[in-house]
Amino acid sequence: MQYDIDQMFKYCEIPEDGKQYFFEDSNENREIMLAAFNHNSFMSKYIYMPILALRFVFNTEKYEKIYHYLNHESLVSILKDKCFYVGNQQEMNDSLEGKYSWNLASNLLNDKDDSPQIRTLFEEIKNRRPFDSYIWSFTLDENNMALQNYGDIAVVMNPQKTFESLADKYTNPEFENMNTGNAFILPLRVNYDRQTQLEYLSNTLDIWLESIRLGAYGDYQDASLAMYLYSLIFKHPKYHQEEEIRYIINKIPDAKGNGYDIKVNGKKKLEAPFLPFLCNEVIVNHRADRIENENINTIQAKVDNALNKFGFTNTIVKKTDLEY
User: How far is it, in rounded angstroms, from Cα 183 to Cα 130?
Assistant: First the structure.
């Protein structure tokens, strides 16, 4: 069996996080993945969701801290409500969010099969949303200069506890019986490498086109779902400095395609738990020095007061290690 495992890891380019995740899984699930790989290694690499998850997973048990950047003003309402509003993929500030990988795939498809029938089917799967997807973004970098554009503080959270809190709220304990309103929680690393993106999209499109020719409905569905996954984790290389990690919360939608908890200013949100045991510390960065009548010291004091006021008494506040 070890030989098969090594072959799967090598062929599917499974990173260290994915290898650890695989060995932490049940014997039954490991055997199912290996059986799928041995049956058809090519299709397993590009459209079999459990192996794709290994390829792009962020192993929450391996790390102690993750960082989310925001403005200190926003922190007060988060502390008060003990929840974090997690945005819907279709309503993010990034105009390319959810579109970037589909645009790449569309360009690749032009060279593979530009027939009207295929284009119609492609547009159908592009617009079909099997889940109502929400994205909570983090990084492993406590001094990420790019992400400081999003705010003057970074909240520091425990990745495994964060994952468990989301699963406790949104995932049915009887995983096989997931219903409307439940969600699949996927902690994944964003991929910024254009060559990797083109490889996965091109090969998945080949499988998708072949499934249409053969009438293989199962492969068609799996390839379509794989392309949906890529739309959640492939980003333009120009954003690589963000080094983003995403908790993707794929809600099973209702009849209208919605899975949100609440609407805020007309936008769909999930109310992710944000409790004292989840937040280890808060780091104030030098963007605070650019706020009128404020500086890094005054913002540190304000954040510390807010934390104590709302019961986050064990959460420490510190200043960034950066000099500017």
Answer: 12
